[in-house]
Amino acid sequence: MERRHILRTTGIALAAGLAGCTGNGNDGGSNETTETDGGMTETDDGMDGEMTETDGGMDGETPTDGEMSAEISGAQLTIDNVGVSAWEITQDETGSVAETGAENPTMTFEVGQRYAVTNDGWGQHPFAVETGDGTALLSQSPDEEGDFEGDADVGWVDEETEFSFTFTESLAAEAATYRCTVHSSMEGDVESA
User: Fold this and answer.
1) How many helices (H) and strands (E) does the chain have?
2) Above 80 in pLDDT, residue 10?
3) Do 96 and 192 meet the contact criterion of CB atoms below 8 Å apart?
4) Could you please report the per-residue DSSP string of 46-109?
5) Domain boundaries, the chain
6) In this structure, which topology does domain 73-192 adopt according to CATH?
7) pLDDT digit string (tens) for 82-95?
8) CA atoms within 13 A on the CB side of 137
């Protein structure tokens, strides 16, 4: 179908709807709507038996505020376990958090930067950021909630294998170490830049 024809037909239908000339549905006309492949919607508007097409856009789904804020985003890091003895960074998009491949390296996070971390060992090795005395600030462990997980500025999002957070000034002031919540040997220092 020609684009001009679609636009003209859509314009006529819109004008009729705005003018209140859509009828009461008893005129024998059809207003059937069917969805076709690719999210397109076809509507028989009763005008000479012709069909019009419109793009359905978001497929009828509108994300809620919670869904929009729960996106994993930020500078990408990938961490993994080395057995039960150490963590290692296997990917660092910024190139400044830690040396890749080193065991339990010092992680340096930039204040104000958002980080998105993939934990390839998540199933057996939940990750946590803690104070010097072992108080959890952020934690993947289902048995432990960190003090900063509810902080809107930190924006903690934990989706099992992936988590993200913003390294705020207040988080930086307290963060001293990271660790596996199951294996105490998997621990390293946290610094801020």
Assistant:
1) 3, 13
2) no
3) no
4) SSTT-EEEEE-TTTT----HHHHHT---SEEEEEEEETTTEEEEEEESSS-S--BT-SSPPEEE
5) 3-55, 73-192
6) Immunoglobulin-like (2.60.40)
7) 999 999 999 999 99
8) 23
